Amino acid sequence: MPFFDPTRPAYREDPYPSLARLRREEPVHFSRQLQAWVLTSYEHCARVLQDDGTFSSEIDVATGSAGKAFAERRRAAPLGDVAVLSNSDPPAHTRLRSVVSRAFTPRALEAMRPRVEARITELLDEAGDTLEVVNGLAAPLVTSIILEQIGVPAEDHEAFRGLTIGIMLAHSGDPARLPAARKAHGDLIAMVERWQRDRGVAETSVLGSILAAPDNEAVTADEMLMLLINIALSGNGATINGIGNAILALAQNPEALDAFARGPEPFPAAIDELLRYDSPAHIVSRVAREPQSLGGRNVRAGDVLHVVLGAANRDPARFPDPDSIDLAREDNRHLVFGYAAHFCLGAPLARIQIESAVRALLARYGRFRVAEVVRGDSILMRGPTRLTILRAPEV
Prior knowledge:
Elements: H1 9-13, H2 16-25, E1 28-31, E2 36-39, H3 42-50, E3 55-56, H4 64-76, H5 92-100, H6 106-110, H7 113-125, E4 130-132, H8 133-150, H9 157-169, H10 178-199, H11 206-211, H12 221-234, H13 236-252, H14 254-262, H15 267-277, E5 283-288, E6 292-294, E7 297-299, E8 304-308, H16 309-312, H17 347-365, E9 369-375, E10 384-390
Parallel strand pairs: 2-8
Antiparallel strand pairs: 1-2, 3-5, 4-10, 5-8, 6-7, 9-10
Helix pairs in contact: 7-8, 7-17, 8-13, 9-10, 13-14, 13-15, 13-17, 15-17
């Protein structure tokens, strides 16, 4: 009988055999454990991600206890009644995305490459022959770069992150967190006002893009804060995991590592192949707005659907020999960054950071080997929480 249990240690270590079996036996599977549909084929995953009129990103519209609890948590928390860019539907999503999109054009993000490379050099200069990739490189790199892109002054990075995390923790439903979150809300408003008053805001930053929006696209003060919070927090995990997964995949596939070290393939295409091979964003969720037939199964209005990006990106019906790394793979339209209207705004910046990190690690550590791997336990994200590599011995 088909089953899906992403909490098993064996699944966290290597989910792909289980996902392949589920995709063969029941690609649209209802999990009683999760009380949700689990989609594992590329065709079904892409359809759900593309059709935001039928499948909502707003989890609080779900029926049952999960949707009700999520809605109640949001209502009680600061900014709980404000649309969230990553979890909203058109027309709100379209309006909010248009306000910040000017700060996320490929040209604007490519201009960040020198700063990304400089930050990587700073971090690697602090390391020796051994490097803990996640906390010694990926996390500090990704966090500092997105805050710079938002427009947060360097001296306020730590305080800003603390305030944003404090507000979002209140959405977890713990009433004890609400007083601190309400104070954080007020402190964050004062911080942004201070930037505007004392420093000015770069036009190319996310905050500058918001403040320069024409009247027909203008957002409220609370919408501005939620945009800053969402952008500061939502994409970090995927990029951090993307760096960790890429380094781990290369270490576990010596032929691919040798090919990278020789550098015969275009780096951007090779990075996309590593992203497809082990997707850092593992699951995204949608809610059916109306009854649907999907893969011969009857999905009810209000049902939650878990779109397993990791499974879709290993679907042999879409990718020949999907369990192998092919750095020259053509037509590599993976779903790591989402699809259609919700395609990740920061995808070009994520690619730049992953590519730059891989280049720098190869230059500094050669054909490195892994000394330690500790897996994370999130079912939505996939990547190591610790990954220690050793410099290759000189021959």
